Amino acid sequence: MTLIFVVILIALVFEFINGFHDTANSIATVVGTRVLSPRQAVIMAAVTNLVGALWGTAVASTIASGLVDPRVASQEVLICALLGAIIWNLITWYAGLPSSSSHALVGGLVGAAVAAAHSWSVVIWSTPSSDHWYPSKGLLGKVIIPMFLSPPLGFLLGFIIMGLLFALLQNLKPRTVNRVFNKAQIVSAMSMGFMHGTNDAQKTMGIIALALAAATASGRLANLPHWLSFLQTAPADPGAGITVAPWIKVMCALVMAAGTASGGWRIIRTLGHKMVRLQPVHGFAAETGSATIIGLASHFGFPVSTTHIVSAAIMGVGAAKRFNALKWTVVERMVWAWILTIPVSGTIAYLLMEILQAFGPAN
Q1: SS3 of the chain
Q2: Phi/psi class of residue 304: alpha, beta or left (left: φ > 0; alpha: ψ in -120 to 50)?
Q3: Which of 2, 232, 287, 358 could staple 192 via S-S, CB 3.0–4.6 A?
Q4: For 86-125, what is each residue's pLDDT tens digit?
Q5: Under 8 Å CB-to-CB from 347, ≥6 apart: which residues?
Q6: Could you tell me the residue ranges of all domains in the chain?
Q7: Phi and psi (nearest 5°) for 68?
């Protein structure tokens, strides 16, 4: 029983870190363009993330039952997975690199599960469907393919939207453009916050739901007092996702908002100031493109990286201005963080699980 609460606690720590690591991405442009103050942006992000987190559970179901065999997802595995993701997130946060908390969590979950089973067979690589041209479930279809496709799509959409805006607004005075997009960017930033909630907030929900479902199935939650009976979670039916209780959604969304308020400035500086100089019209284009891609991913249950998509959209907007507007040294550091996230977080989680198996209480 104690391990269940440890998993929930560490999951909420991850969500808090995700708040100042990833939610900062969703408000970086609106702060970087000075349309909203940091305090106003944080309040907006908290509200829109909460609404988005309550909107659906497709991404949570992917994390809970679509990546590794749920039978190996013990509390120990989930603890090591979360710690692997947390350690990598803190490293990249300290360096000011907007890497992906989503992919850190996926890498941690896969690494810990493989270590626990001593086999790669526990990883659900793909389950092809006759209705799709791509593997509709598993690590390949839900994570790897979207991981490689979403940044180029974010770049392309940011580039296209910015190009269209340049064509439409070329005869307007800069003062008029700024006045219009000072207001329009608030709408696009709210959309970005909402879509961020539909995707990022759900990943920790999936971990908590998976932990509770596994504990319920194993009988660890059989003799709970009545006031704790809400912790019992039925395992997923074949072909269906695990049900995520409303209290899990609200708790994760609130913790993420608290994390955003506490320390997102390192990432905001990188995205909103260091990579390319932004005006409200550029922020609007980047946020609109990002929100569109993330919304589509959430609909299909893809746990994509908000970081990758926002960063790529900002690059696309900067490239539409002119390619030398981008600070390529910053971009290069970000790309390396993207490449390393899944293997490094997975390796950390794998090693933690090996250490736990070697020196844990059972040994």
Answers
A1: CHHHHHHHHHHHHHHHHHHHHHHHHHHHHHHHCCCCCHHHHHHHHHHHHHHHHCCCCHHHHHHHHCCECHHHCCHHHHHHHHHHHHHHHHHHHHCCCCCCHHHHHHHHHHHHHHHHHCCHHHECCCCECCCCCCECCHHHHHHHHHHHHHHHHHHHHHHHHHHHHHHHHCCCCHHHHHHHHHHHHHHHHHHHHHHHHHHHHHHHHHHHHHHHHHHHHHCCCCCCCHHHHHHCCCCCCCCCCCCCCHHHHHHHHHHHHHHHHHHCHHHHHHHHHHCCCCCHHHHHHHHHHHHHHHHHHHHHCCCCCHHHHHHHHHHHHHHHHCHHHCCHHHHHHHHHHHHHHHHHHHHHHHHHHHHHHHHCCCC
A2: beta
A3: 287
A4: 999 888 877 767 678 888 999 999 999 999 999 999 998 8
A5: 84, 111
A6: 2-359
A7: -130, 160
* pLDDT average, residue stretch 58-84: 87
Specify the pLDDT at position 269: 56
The pLDDT assigned to 114 comes to 96
CA proximity to 10, closest of 72, 75, 68: 75
Q: Which amino acid is at 148?
A: F
Residues 6+ positions from 104 with CB-CB distance below 8 Å:
84, 85, 88, 89, 341, 342, 345
At residue 309, does pLDDT exceed 80?
yes
128 forms beta bridges with 135
CB–CB of 24/243 below 8 Å?
Answer: no
